[in-house]
Amino acid sequence: MKGKNFLIFVLEDDKLYNTILHHFLSLNPEHEVKSFTTGAELLKALHQKPDFITLDYSLPDGNAMQLLKQIRDVLPEVRIVIVSAQQDVQTAIDLLKKGADDYLVKDSETQDRLWVAIKNCKEKISLKKEIETLQTEVSKKYNFQKAIIGNSTPMKQVFSLIEKAALTNITVSVTGETGTGKDLVAKAIHFNSTRKSRPFVPVNIAAIPAELMESELFGHEKGSFTGAVTQRIGKFEEANKGTLFLDEIGEMDITLQAKLLRVLQEKEITRVGSNKIIPVDVRIIVATHRNLLAEVKKGTFREDLYYRLLGLNIHLPPLRNRENDVLLIAKHFIEQFCSENNLPKKYLSLEAKKQLLNYQFPGNIRELKSIIDLSCVMSDGEEIELAHTQRVSATMPGSITSLEEPVTLRRFTLQLLQDYLEKYDYDVLKVAQVLNVGKSTLYRLIKNKELNVPEKVY
């Protein structure tokens, strides 16, 4: 808000009523009120960016209908209220359609209704500032290497691609099995990009019926179809200047794919039931667990849209291929669950760790979280034992327990070394002596972050 606090423009050619409005609105010491008698005068002053404008309908140099568009072109978000002696209902409706926020007829209740309109405007501005502040704080805290946990070689490659994606507005396609954290990657890119203060709008394509998808993405006008009782903006408009995350893009009906392609090419949308073209500036991130190229060959996904969306591809490896990350993530989930549920600190036993390392995790990180949450509940003491993780795994449909799945020799060796380091409080010389391993080998693995040792110890 400008000036003292809240800047109001009053446009009224009747000098007496102009003075009355000016005096009335100035009663609040937070208000700075500026009066005008012609549309030209007000337009010249728009660079001051008022928060609120009252317009008379009939003016010496035109009318409010003509002036509305000129104001909106300069200040699209300013609140505009028409205050007029005109009592024609159709005129009021036309003005509201053209962009007026409210229409007040000059009578004994005008002043009270103006107070309400101004109060609503202030609340809207305050809410917007709170959201902007929150988005700024989120972006500051959103260090993706903390939000996305992992030290494995495949994840280091993912982090490198996220950094590259955040530097530009290139379209990003995130691929990987269900539960690998594709939504976290999309958020990491957005909140580390130049668009971080703008909206991040996720859309799960698989969760929306095909017949409602066009309205969901592009919006609709009132009465455009049965059930459309009000106008609604779509996700593209909602994400303007920000990022639109289209999750499970492979589930989109092929008839809508052509419309999506046109929007991506033309950078403009048209609401359902309208002919008005609305320009949009949106960064696109898509995700899918499907092989889209295979879907193209099957004829269920448009080839031209495929190449339009491919952009920079970031493939998330399944949890079973992420080396020692499963234990890092498990530790994070244990700490999170205990904190949220006021439980004492817990830790995984050596046998439980080995069981998790051997397990294949068909549901990936999402499944791991379910296993850990239930294990924390089943464990009565500080230690989460093998019985707890085995019991949980056995309840998972189609799960395979740890003893039935092979583990690589390197992975087993690294886990054995990690367990002994923790057992002997990260005393490298002691572990080297006990396991008959060269201390230089241990130091090299620690330096390469293949073994995890607290910085204050190493």
UniProtKB/TrEMBL annotation:
Chain ranges of the Response regulatory domain: 7-121
GO biological process: phosphorelay signal transduction system; regulation of DNA-templated transcription
Gene3D superfamilies for this protein: 1.10.8.60, 3.40.50.2300, Homeodomain-like, P-loop containing nucleotide triphosphate hydrolases
Keywords for the protein's UniProt record, in alphabetical order: ATP-binding, Nucleotide-binding, Phosphoprotein
Sequence ranges assigned to domain Sigma-54 factor interaction in this UniProt record: 148-377
The keyword Nucleotide-binding is assigned to this record: yes
Keyword DNA repair: no
InterPro entries recorded: AAA+_ATPase, AAA_lid_NorR, CheY-like_superfamily, Homeodomain-like_sf, P-loop_NTPase, Sig_transdc_resp-reg_receiver, Sigma_54_int, Sigma_54_int_dom_ATP-bd_2
SMART domains (alphabetical): AAA (SM00382), REC (SM00448)
GO molecular function terms attached to this record: ATP binding
4-aspartylphosphate found at: D56
Name by which UniProt lists this protein: Sigma-54-dependent Fis family transcriptional regulator
